[in-house]
Amino acid sequence: MTINHLVLSGTITRSRRFHSPAGIAHSVIMLEHKSQCFEAEMLRNVYCQIQVILSGERFNSVTEQLKAGVNIEVKGFIALQQSRNGQNRLVLHAENVELKT
């Protein structure tokens, strides 16, 4: 069995919305995560940025609120995406988004 599930919280640094040629609503946000975790019995500062893609009508009720500076928790799966210049990167495809206060 293979598992691909990621839960990550952080702050939105950028967001944009668009519709595909097929008419599907998409929101693309950049999520910045900062935390501290223990690794090998030592506290480690953790920082990352990841692009999050929200696709479909189910996110319509929350997309207006997804702006820079907003804290969220995203649950979804990761996938490889190749940019126009041929660079590969991991992106998080959201299955659920929760606003955090």
Description:
- The chain is mainly beta.
- The protein contains 1 helix and 5 strands.
- It has one helix at 60-63, and strands spanning 6-19, 25-39, 42-55, 71-82, 88-100.
- It has a 5-stranded mixed barrel with strand order 1-2-3-5-4.
- The relative contact order is 0.27.
- The model has no long low-confidence stretch (mean pLDDT 94).
Primary descriptors:
mainly beta; 5 strands; 101 residues; single chain; 5-stranded mixed β-barrel
User: Which overall shape is indicated by the principal axes computed on the Cα atoms?
Assistant: globular
Q: What multimeric state do the chains show?
A: single chain
Low-confidence stretches: none
Cα distance spanning the termini: 36 Å
Strand content: over 45%
Tell me the number of strands: 5
Main structural class: mainly beta
Radius of gyration based on Cα positions: 15 Å
Strand order of the biggest β-sheet: 1-2-3-5-4
Mean pLDDT: 94
Give the ordered list of helices and strands: EEEHEE
What's the main sheet like?
A: 5 strands, mixed, barrel
What's this entry about, in short?
The chain has 1 helix and 5 strands, in the order βββαββ.
List the helices and strands and how they pair.
Elements: E1 6-19, E2 25-39, E3 42-55, H1 60-63, E4 71-82, E5 88-100
Parallel strand pairs: 3-5
Antiparallel strand pairs: 1-2, 1-4, 2-3, 4-5
